[in-house]
């Protein structure tokens, strides 16, 4: 098992395992949930057929080059770069070859590897990424969003200045769970300042229809942590039209591509977010090579549809660019609580009754909903009489968020408590739509 890298932190266990394996720890790979593992268990992706990754300067399509140059960000920790000279930021990272002990036959060997995830600018100050890339308020605080991380020619990086580097102000919308039978993994974060007009948001795919099987798609991001690569050779293998949570594609993507924008190739709008897939590298003698599958082989790469992320965002916030046609989000209602020894919100909880009509959706949390906050490890449950209908522990790190759509009218009860027997406090905010 590979210990994933956590933004801003390196654990002693991770260091030990890296030492034992003689391979440096690199960027966080995509998460691959399974029946036997909690969401967040991580495994890396793979190349399907021909390796279609291309440096930005070398790609033939001007629109895709613009998406990389104007809309793509690399997620890094502050320790991954040196901004002593604000007009020429440099990167503190191993080369791809040394980070993964790659054989000399492999591509991009001299690229630096500072990024742990990727993302896409979708509004003036909003970045779309994977939920497992930004898991909590503390992860938000310790993450930097770096534009212009690409090559302008062989061996030459685009100059990055401090004007190209942004901090995370807050997580506005996030899911990393199976909700209502849909396996979702996304986050929309607000930057510390607008990135426009210096950079340009990528357009979002309209509607909520499944991508037809065979649709050609492009992914742009920092696979294995290296400068942005464009892969426009992927296609949709499984649309999952029945759930519309994610689709499966044959993109050539690697750890560090988590959170990358995936574009449909007819209009180049963002259709999804790369979140998980197959193993990247395999041993070849004393070094490693890219793991290669046929176009129809292996498991494929999972790509969260973009629409659930936009739906979640527009349910709690507004945006002229993103939320046209959505009703204005309701004003949140709040209540405060302090609790201890609640046995994971099963006793000694602070409660609030909420009346719902059939078809109404209740969103409640100590995070995500505007006005929500918490200290400690909060735990929320929702009951309809004696029956629990929703619950959440760690939607945002140690804070909680859940959504529930009522199928029948009734009075429901939010119960606010803490994980296990600990103490916590906060403000639960909720909306009814």
From TrEMBL:
Its EC number(s): 3.4.21.-
Pfam families: Trypsin_2
Keywords annotated in UniProt: Hydrolase, Protease, Serine protease, Signal
Entries under PROSITE patterns matching the protein: PROKAR_LIPOPROTEIN, TRYPSIN_DOM, TRYPSIN_HIS, V8_SER
Domain Peptidase S1: 75-433
InterPro entries: Glutamyl_endopeptidase, Peptidase_S1_PA, Peptidase_S1_PA_chymotrypsin, Peptidase_S1B, Trypsin_dom, TRYPSIN_HIS, V8_ser_AS
Signal peptide segment: 1-30
BP GO terms, sorted: proteolysis
GO molecular function: serine-type endopeptidase activity
SMART domains the record matches: Tryp_SPc
Keyword match Phosphoprotein: no
Stated family: Belongs to the peptidase S1B family.
Name under which the protein is recorded: Serine protease
